[in-house]
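Case study 2.
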Amino acid sequence: MANSIKNALIIGATGLVGRALVKQLNFDANYDNITLIVRHEDAEFSRYPKVQQMQLDDFLMLGDQDVNGFSHVFSCLGSTIKKAGSKENFWNIDYEINAHLADLLETTEAHFLLVSAMGANAHSKIFYNNVKGQLEDYIQQLDLEKVSIIRPSLLLGERNEKRTLENATQNLYKKFAHLVPSSFKYKPVTAEQVAHTMVEAARTQTEKFKIYDNLSILKNSDS
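Prediction:
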């Protein structure tokens, strides 16, 4: 049975998964209104009839009034240490902003859906995975109405910024993709597949807290 879907709020809409999610929600008859929190107005989003953009220079300035009234709140916000410029900046983006958003949602009845990472683990020696894991742990101990954690492997797609290693990996994978079985848990996924999983979770999840691993993303995309 599909959940009641009314208004959606999205942070991280200008990223690879974010853009795919906005596009899917805009053409989903179940959604009436989609609000994006952005630093600068985006021309592509302006063409979508259901979308409105809320400009905010500092996402940590989000307040209770900004998140009230939404049935679903999606976070596709994330960076890399290289793009962020330092571990501190990466922490501020990936942890602090998402944790702040989650804090605000404690007083709402919104379903919170977060894009994390396959290797998320608060005890990991890899800084990226460690931060993702700490964020997941923090969100899980909050009193939120409903939470979905999406853990994709390598993301396939054309990014606005240059990621040399990811691009090289993508090109290599494309050559041998036909040899990779669908049951391989590390199989790369597209931004569209991740976005589709988020939409399906928003529509069908009944559990208060659920993690969608990479195999779940692959399975959802085949359904």
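Confidence is low (pLDDT under 50) at residues 175-179.
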